[in-house]
Amino acid sequence: MNRYGQMTHDHNRQHRPDTYSQLLNPDEFFAEVGEAIAAQVSQLRDQILGPPRSGEDPETYRLRSYQALAAAEEMTLADHHLLQPDPAIETDEDWSDDPDLDLRYRTLAEINQAINAPL
User: Fold this and answer.
1) CB atoms closer than 10 angstroms to residue 73
2) What was the pLDDT predicted at 117?
3) Radius of gyration, CA atoms only, the chain
4) Domain ranges of the chain
5) In 10 A of CB 48, how many CB atoms?
6) 87 or 15: which carries more pLDDT confidence?
7) CB count, 10 Å around CB of 52?
8) Cα→Cα distances 20→3, 82, 83, 116, Å
């Protein structure tokens, strides 16, 4: 199991125990998930990186490659459904001591509800 598979495995075992407990073979499942994430990251990195630029030396291209990899990982992992919080779990956090933060979280909660609302 690669690091992406281990990451999703650990996240789901800790934050989605009910769903995790229903998997027949979690190690195999998350190994496959890890490979799929690695492929997505690699493909997105290549898109972000593109070909070497005119006059670009190999060291600069290598550094751009690392930056593209970091960006691709961040985008892929942030959007992956198995690394999201369990939608069935509601949080009752109180941000009333910070009105700006409270407004942002309430707005995000409303957006999330609208997105998850049945059509």
Assistant:
1) 17
2) 65
3) 19
4) 3-89
5) 16
6) 15
7) 13
8) 18, 11, 13, 21
